Amino acid sequence: QNKERKIDGSASQGSTVDPKAAQLFKAKNVLSQALVQEEFSLCYQPQVNISSGEIHGMEALLRWKHPRFGQVSPSKFIPLAEETDLIIPIGKWVLKTACIQNQAWQKIGLPAVPVSVNLSPRQLQHPDLVKMVGQVLDETGLAPHWLELEITEAALMQDLELARKVMRELQQLGVSISMDDFGIGCSSLGYLKQLPFHTLKIAQSFVRELKDDSQDAALLSALITLGRSLNLRVVAEGVETEQQVELLRSLHCEEMQGYRFSKPLQAEEAAKFLALSPIV
Ligand code: C2E
Ligand code: MG
Ligand code: MG
Ligand code: MG
After folding, report:
1. Cα 191 to ligand 3 centroid, rounded to whole Å
2. pLDDT single digits (tens) 120-134
3. CA of 254: how far to CAs of 50, 153, 250, in Å?
4. Per residue in 110-133, is it b (16+ CB within 10 Å) or e — as a string?
5. How far apart are the C-alpha atoms of 235 and 170, rounded to whole Å?
6. How remote is the CA of residue 160 from the centroid of ligand 2, in Å?
């Protein structure tokens, strides 16, 4: 058995390579390869206003098809992209692709709707984020009000002051910001009041677990009321059934995203869906 000397002089046990480091090293290679080999694509999921039937937005969702492993779920590879910092170039690719697509749809006369792009905590903390967003808007020619950036509470937790500064700068660019997965964290309330959010996306779990349980409905109702009283646009995520639609409607939440309306669609399918708006 090989015994390696660590920097501090102590002998390490077993294998000479830290398995976690080795795994990340591998992930970094595979993911940077994926970017070069164009294995990434975007799907788009419509956000529907149920009273007008109009589509009020499209969320861009990253997809990765590895040549041998097939589709890999974002919940698996996004954390790896974060840990290896590859989320920076990948995130830029996502933003640029989404902006180009939105421009292209508007140019062929489809109803103009904003595109939402997810930002990871690492991206929000990156010193060049605002510059990068401005550059992509310039390069693609997309007007800033067609872009919405989605951030989660995790991105705010790290450094609230920095988040506040960056969000203000993004807002000054003319981009709007939504809070994704709202309700899951514990301190969302304070953040909401202090930061320039435009949209509140209510986490799937609050919508999904709705049955006849009146406690769940009360919680959902409170979240919706909170968003509305702060003058935020409120979107319910993960809406799957007609029963959920009806309950949300009765709670005055009219904007919804979920399988009930559409799964995330490849660009061509998404364009067909857009062409149908209003969908009632
Ligand atoms: P998210 O931003 O909250 O996106 C919503 C997720 O819910 C998507 O999963 C979507 O496919 C799924 N979904 C939508 N409607 C329904 C429904 O009715 N029922 C159920 N069960 N699920 C529904 P997806 O595409 O697997 O993405 C998962 C997460 O990965 C996203 O959650 C987001 O946090 C992250 N992600 C995806 N694309 C990107 C990206 O380009 N950049 C970053 N940083 N994160 C991304
Ligand atoms: Mg999102
Ligand atoms: Mg979400
Ligand atoms: Mg999320």
Report:
1. 17
2. 999 999 999 999 999
3. 5, 23, 9
4. beebbbbbbbbbbbbebeebbebb
5. 21
6. 20
Whether 255 contacts 239, CB under 8 Å: no
Q: Is 181 in the pocket of ligand 1 (CB under 6 A)?
A: yes
Residue 122 CA to ligand 4 center (angstroms) comes to: 14
Rounded (10°) angle between helices 160-173 and 129-140: 20
What does pTM read for this prediction? 0.92
DSSP summary character for residue 10: P
Return d(Cα 50, Cα 254) in angstroms, integer. 5
pLDDT digits (tens, 9 = 90+) for 55-69: 999 999 999 999 999
Within 13 Å, how many C-alpha atoms sit on residue 182's CB side?
A: 28
Instruction: Provide the residue type at 220 as one letter.
Output: L
Farthest-apart Cα atoms in the chain, separation = 70
Report the number of secondary-structure helices (H) and strands (E) in the chain. Answer: 12, 10
State the pLDDT at residue 125: 95
- In sign, the C-alpha dihedral spanning 265, 239, 261, 144 is negative
Q: How confident is the model at residue 216 (pLDDT cuts 50, 70, 90)?
A: confident
Beta strand residue intervals within 125-249, DSSP E: 147-151, 176-182, 199-202, 233-236
**CA atoms within 13 Å, Cβ hemisphere of 113:** 25
DSSP assignment, residue 146?
G
